[in-house]
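Figure 2 data, in text form.
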Amino acid sequence: MDKDKLIHKFDRQAGVYDRRRQKSSDRTWREPLVSCAYGKVLEISVGAGANFPFYPKDVEVTAVDFSNEMLLAAQRGAADHRLQVTFLQSDVESLAFPANTFDTIVSTLSFCGYENPLQVLASLKEWCKPNGQILLMEHGRSSSPIIRPLQHIINPMFRRMVGCHVNRDIMGMVQQAGLHIEREEHHWLDMIHRVWARPNKS
């Protein structure tokens, strides 16, 4: 999908995401993961800042998104929760940071949208300090022999309407990227994954 069209889709959805953030409707999913963040944090595809209520108060967050409307909503969220956040409007896939910059890197529900998700994972490994952590909550292909074929059927529609893939092999990508998984959880017929990982640098 053309990147400008994808950005426009997320700009239009910013209000919905902002209302969900204010209700903390995803607390059960986000808090156990995001509360583990420490130090200098990078959050990619921050959206409207749905993770902000769950960060420890002493972290320093760099929040990246390609949608201006999402970032405006996220700025309101940072103010609501008195977080120290630097905002950066950028496409994650063309982003650059020096190696070993961040103690914690967070991604929640973003790997469904990238054109080259393995390239993004490789970048996260590079930007994370060797003793740092990469925290992921992602949705993808189910292990169910009934649900999985349906995901493949509806994927083109979701990609066109919402801007995301529903049938990606998230854990396969994490393993292919060479992350060291310290803890993993799988829910909803393995469609939702939470991963606590290290960059596994030699």
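Caption note: The chain has one domain: 3-198.
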